User: Which sequence fits this backbone?
């Protein structure tokens, strides 16, 4: 069992959650604990389902081919993330979202539909689904490499809770640190390294 891969995948796949938490913190938008739990629960369901799909796909391949394809998918996503962030200026900050976009990932403020600076439980469902959809490919790749779906799902939910809760509390300060400025590239590098590790492990 690759504990390093479990933790790294759960961590890297939740950097979007951290970014959104920080963005809300910058705007003093509150995320009540129940809303945060709903987002974490949807993240867990999305992680488990996508990893299960990866496992099913791997069932029809040899272990070597499944592991190689899954690892290549994870590395490919990481490489694409690095290139995409680099093309946008090398430092896509956590506060430089496109406020004209209705996509909660590109513009987290769109999730606050009633503009009352509180993410309600109803609003958190849409946000949670958007975040889960964004991580489907990572989950499929991880499932194909035989990483434990149960453990990865548990840690994905835990990191989601921590990142969104913590991010919303310290958003204004942390969004301006080096981690805030380069989180997209950091996540890409981490995913790329996970894929390489799974290829040679």
Assistant:
């Amino acid at each position: 069992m690759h504990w390093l891969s479990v933790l790294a995948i759960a961590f890297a796949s939740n950097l979007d959650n951290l970014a959104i938490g920080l963005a809300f913190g910058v705007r003093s938008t509150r995320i009540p604990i129940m809303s945060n739990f709903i987002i974490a629960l949807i993240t867990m369901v999305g992680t488990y389902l996508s990893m299960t799909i990866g496992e099913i796909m791997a069932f029809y391949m040899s272990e070597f081919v499944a592991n190689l394809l899954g690892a290549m998918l994870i590395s490919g996503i990481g490489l694409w993330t690095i290139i995409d962030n680099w093309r946008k200026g090398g430092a896509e900050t956590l506060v430089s979202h496109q406020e004209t976009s209705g996509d909660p990932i590109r513009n987290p403020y769109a999730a606050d539909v009633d503009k009352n600076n509180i993410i309600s439980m109803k609003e958190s469902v849409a946000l949670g689904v958007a975040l889960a959809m964004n991580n489907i490919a990572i989950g499929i790749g991880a499932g194909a490499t035989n990483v434990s779906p149960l453990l990865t799902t548990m840690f994905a939910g835990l990191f989601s809770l921590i990142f969104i809760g913590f991010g919303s509390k310290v958003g204004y300060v942390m969004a301006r640190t080096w981690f805030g400025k380069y989180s997209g590239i950091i996540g890409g590098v981490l995913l790329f390294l996970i894929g390489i590790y799974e290829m040679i492990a």
About this structure: The chain has nine helices and no strands. Residues 3-69+94-177 form one domain. The two ends are 11 Å apart (CA to CA). Confidence is low (pLDDT under 50) at residues 90-98.
